[in-house]
Amino acid sequence: MKKKIVIIPLVIVAFAIFTFLFQLLWNCIIPDVFGLNAINYWQSLGILIISKILFGGFGFKNNRTPFGPKRAPFTENLSEEERQKLREEWKSRCQKK
User: Fold this and answer.
1) Is residue 95 a part of any domain in this protein?
2) Residue 65 within any structural domain of the chain
3) Which of 42, 46, 58, 88 registers the highest number of CB atoms within 10 A of its CB?
4) Judging by DSSP bridges, how do beta strands 64-65 and 68-69 pair with one another?
5) What is the rounded distance in angstroms from the CA atom of residue 16 to the CA atom of residue 48?
């Protein structure tokens, strides 16, 4: 219980600092590069939330992503020997010549 009392405020403070750093980084780079306006703290928080929704999702159980399992589906049915052969083939293809 004592850990929760300490951890929760630390998480809130860390997220507030991260949001401030995001705002600072945005205001230093984006207006000059893309000609967009500078943003305030609440706008930076909104952008972070929207990006989490669009790109990070809300988390999936069983190590899954919105597009299926993280492991490539074509390797699920391969034996260990076939996987090793596939790894070696890719290593040979990716070596510098």
Assistant:
1) no
2) yes
3) 46
4) antiparallel
5) 11
Is 17 among the domain residues?
A: yes
In one letter, which amino acid is 43?
Q
Q: How many domains does the chain have?
A: 1
Enter the tokens of residue 54.
Answer: 């669009």
Q: What pLDDT does 79 receive?
A: 84
Mean per-residue pLDDT for 19-45? 95
Q: How far apart, in whole angstroms, are the C-alpha atoms of residue 59 and residue 79? A: 30
The pair phi, psi for residue 64, each rounded to 5°, is -110, 155
Instruction: Confirm whether 24 is domain-assigned.
Output: yes
Query: Is residue 91 very low, low, confident or very high in pLDDT (cuts 50, 70, 90)?
Result: confident
What pLDDT shows up at residue 4?
A: 81
- Tell me which residue range forms the domain holding 29: 2-70
Q: Where are the alpha helices (DSSP H) in 1-97?
A: 2-34, 41-51, 80-94
d(CA 75, CA 33): 42
Examine the pLDDT at 69 and tell me if it is beyond 60: no
